[in-house]
Amino acid sequence: MGSYRIAISSCKLAKKIPSGDPVWPTFNGSFQNLELSAMDLAGVLYDGHAMTTWHKDHWRTTANYLCGQHVGLDFDTCDERSTLPTLADNKFIAKYGGLIYTTMSHTAEAPRARVVFLLDTPIMQAGNYSLVAAALLWLFGTADRQCKDAVRFFYGAPCCQIEYLDNVLPLETVRHLIAQYQETGRQERKRHESGAYNTPADQAEVADALRKIPVWSLEYDEWVQVLMGLHAAFGEDGRRLADDWADGKPGEVEQKWRGFKANGNGAGQVTIATVFGIAKRYGWTKTLH
């Protein structure tokens, strides 16, 4: 039975900590760097302890990152796709997943679960850890796209349901997955630069393309690129399209929109062709008039 470098909070929580709660500083400083077996990890999560990556100085921040040997993916679709049986039946998870457990927000009517992958080798650089998480998010389109921060913590869930798989994700498999993820990104960029959609687009055509893009299947960076493409094509006139599609947190689209330059972004590298390219990946086809 192997052991894994995972930091565990000494706080036992029965519910999530509200935003702005004064307990946050205590919680952020409560993590201890431990070496745990998969069974031990299942036990502390079941008891309500949170987990994150190893870090120094008892303070959870990217600058203090030491190493990570687990990656968590949240499945919050609130339907059959986020149930333990469905996730456990996934071929990749069945082969490489360490454990699956229902999260604090889970209910029978709206299932939510977290898959924990345990790595055979710790990731020593924060940037590389985030890349591993991003590659796994790319592989699983229904997972929460925000779960790639190198020091992101995951709540435990008292008395949760646990599917104990006891598998390990090898570093060699991770490298192969990252290569696929990066190659897909390169191919998408080539398609965007190929000029396949150089003719001016109207908002009706763009709205049709946006309907094909499942907002919660995108990585955060790609989500922002869609907004950039809309801004580049339509300026303020594209704001309604962005708001209708983006499903962001209150004020999130407005904040991003204000940050886009009036004369484009990134030397014009993100255009409406980016939006069409992403939509095409999800089955959209240009209608010929």
Structure description:
The protein is α+β, with helices and mostly antiparallel strands and 289 residues long. It folds into two domains: 4-182, no CATH class; 194-281. Helices cover 39% and strands 17% of the residues. It contains eleven helices and eight strands. It has helices spanning 24-28, 38-46, 84-89, 91-96, 126-139, 171-193, 203-210, 220-234, 239-246, 252-259, 272-281, and strands at 4-12, 31-36, 49-52, 54-55, 65-75, 99-102, 113-123, 162-164. The strands form two sheets. The chain has a five-stranded antiparallel beta sheet with strand order 4-5-7-6-8, sandwiched between helices. The protein has a three-stranded antiparallel beta sheet with strand order 2-1-3. The chain is globular, with a radius of gyration of 21 Å. The N and C termini lie far apart (63 Å).
Topology of helices and strands:
Elements: E1 4-12, H1 24-28, E2 31-36, H2 38-46, E3 49-52, E4 54-55, E5 65-75, H3 84-89, H4 91-96, E6 99-102, E7 113-123, H5 126-139, E8 162-164, H6 171-193, H7 203-210, H8 220-234, H9 239-246, H10 252-259, H11 272-281
Antiparallel strand pairs: 1-2, 1-3, 4-5, 5-7, 6-7, 6-8
